[in-house]
């Protein structure tokens, strides 16, 4: 191979790598990956949850598909999307970790979104098993019901955060509640924790969420 041909081939190789980077270079596309890390979704469901119109959501999903990050299946007239593999979820999680470690804007943006108390009252997942085994805690999943059905921590109760105020009586009164949602940057568990505290309930938030739980290859139940 000549030097010119070698340089051309190398350029094409790195452009192929760059395709993945370009697909990740949009906040809404990252949000769609975050949602798909919870389980398969239709275009309509993704658009609704991400606050996008259908055309824009479809365009973002096509970009992710062309980069090989998501896959599809057809069910009649509906198109269902899923992550192309667990390595895509791992890439997304690693991107967030690197950004949090090296980009100064992440911390204030996280505090503004999750609340200044985001680091308080959190429980590492390593400590969860002992509490549950001893009967000292109940695990509460506050994600939407379809995400719970797609996969949840074994034994977790499902009460979507928007229903929690009306269903708080379903939780044992004398047991600490461990709340979790999609991942480390999911606001649902923070909102649930504030509500539980306001109602005088003992509660903590699982430091991680379903994304990190799956990546740690811990047991997952599906409804």
How would you sum up this structure in a few lines?
Keywords: DNA-binding, Transcription, Transcription regulation. This protein has 223 residues and is α/β, with parallel strands linked by helices.
Description:
InterPro entries: ArsR-like_HTH, HTH_ArsR_DNA-bd_dom, Metal_resp_trans_reg, Rhodanese-like_dom, Rhodanese-like_dom_sf, Thiosulphate_STrfase_CS, WH-like_DNA-bd_sf, WH_DNA-bd_sf. GO terms for molecular function: DNA binding; DNA-binding transcription factor activity; thiosulfate-cyanide sulfurtransferase activity. Pfam families: HTH_20, Rhodanese. Keywords: DNA-binding, Transcription, Transcription regulation. This protein is α/β, with parallel strands linked by helices and 223 residues long. The protein folds into 2 domains: 88 residues, Arc Repressor Mutant, subunit A (Orthogonal Bundle); 101 residues, Oxidized Rhodanese, domain 1. Helices cover 52% and strands 14% of the residues. It contains 11 helices and 8 strands. It has a 5-stranded parallel β-sheet with strand order 4-8-7-5-6, sandwiched between helices. A 3-stranded antiparallel β-sheet has the order 1-3-2. Helix 3 packs across helix 4. The longest helix is centred in the first third of the chain and has 21 residues. The N and C termini lie far apart (56 Å). The mean pLDDT is 94.
């Amino acid at each position: 191979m000549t030097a010119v041909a070698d340089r051309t081939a190398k350029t094409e190789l790195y452009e192929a790598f760059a395709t993945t980077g370009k697909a990740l270079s949009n906040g809404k596309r990252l949000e769609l990956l975050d949602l798909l890390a919870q389980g398969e979704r239709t275009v309509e469901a993704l658009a609704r949850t991400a606050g996008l119109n259908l055309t824009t959501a479809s365009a973002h999903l096509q970009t992710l598909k062309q980069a090989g990050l998501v896959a599809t299946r057809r069910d009649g007239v509906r198109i269902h999307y899923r992550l192309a593999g667990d390595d895509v979820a791992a890439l997304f999680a690693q991107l967030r970790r690197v950004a949090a470690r090296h980009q100064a804007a992440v911390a204030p943006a996280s505090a503004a979104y999750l609340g200044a108390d985001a680091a308080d009252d959190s429980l590492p997942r390593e400590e969860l098993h002992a509490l549950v085994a001893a009967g000292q805690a109940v695990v509460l999943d506050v994600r939407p019901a379809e995400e719970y059905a797609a996969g949840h921590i074994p034994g977790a109760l499902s009460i979507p955060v928007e229903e929690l105020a009306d269903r708080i009586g379903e939780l044992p009164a004398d047991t600490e509640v461990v709340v979790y949602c999609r991942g480390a940057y999911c606001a649902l568990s923070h909102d649930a924790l504030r509500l539980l505290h306001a109602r005088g309930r003992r509660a903590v938030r699982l430091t991680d969420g379903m994304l990190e739980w799956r990546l740690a290859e811990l047991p997952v139940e599906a409804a």
